[in-house]
Design goal:
Blueprint lengths: L16 H11 L3 H8 L3 H8 L9 H7 L6 H9 L14 H23 L9 H23 L9
Helix pairs in contact: 1-3, 1-5, 2-3, 6-7
Length: 158
């Protein structure tokens, strides 16, 4: 079992910003590492995650800690916007392959979901596999969109 880098003991509602800060600090390697990155004391970082403390992490601090392996802040904001955060790994295929790949992945993902839902509901054991398939199809489509727009994912893409 993997030991968490940051595990405060006070309970916090998982949908509150303090919970997202906890996840972010854990993903960043713990309070000491996060403190170095944002230029604060580890005790201050603990206060940022404490539901009983009035201290709040600034948006700039969240941004400084956010990266491909530390997406908790982005995930929280996407949830608040009624969306889903979908990290984009570097593209490893050419555009011709990407077009065919995205069509195949999209079709496979949709077919998998339809099979799992044909009885009117999806079992809890089927959801993780279906989500993985859908996410992979979405990533391929986002890479295709980025190629068409001429802008990499994360650059606005408009």
């Amino acid at each position: 079992m993997t030991r968490r880098a940051f595990a405060p003991v006070k309970p916090v509602d998982p949908e509150l910003p303090k919970a997202a800060v906890r996840r972010l600090v854990d993903q960043a390697g713990g309070a000491a590492r996060a403190a170095i990155v944002i230029g604060r004391a580890p005790s201050t970082v603990y206060a940022y995650a404490d539901p009983q403390a009035s201290d709040e992490m600034t948006y700039a601090q969240v941004a400084a800690l956010t990266g491909p392996k530390t997406p908790a802040g982005a995930e929280h904001l996407a949830t608040l916007a009624h969306g889903v955060f979908l990290p984009m790994p570097p593209a490893d295929t050419e555009i011709g392959e990407l077009t065919a790949e995205s069509i195949v992945q999209h079709g496979d993902a949709v077919a998998e979901v339809v099979r799992a839902m044909c009885d009117g509901k999806m079992g809890d054991d089927e959801r993780p596999g279906a989500i993985v398939e859908i996410d992979e199809a979405l990533r391929a489509l986002v890479r295709l969109r980025a190629a068409v727009s001429g802008k990499p994912p994360g650059d606005g893409g408009n």
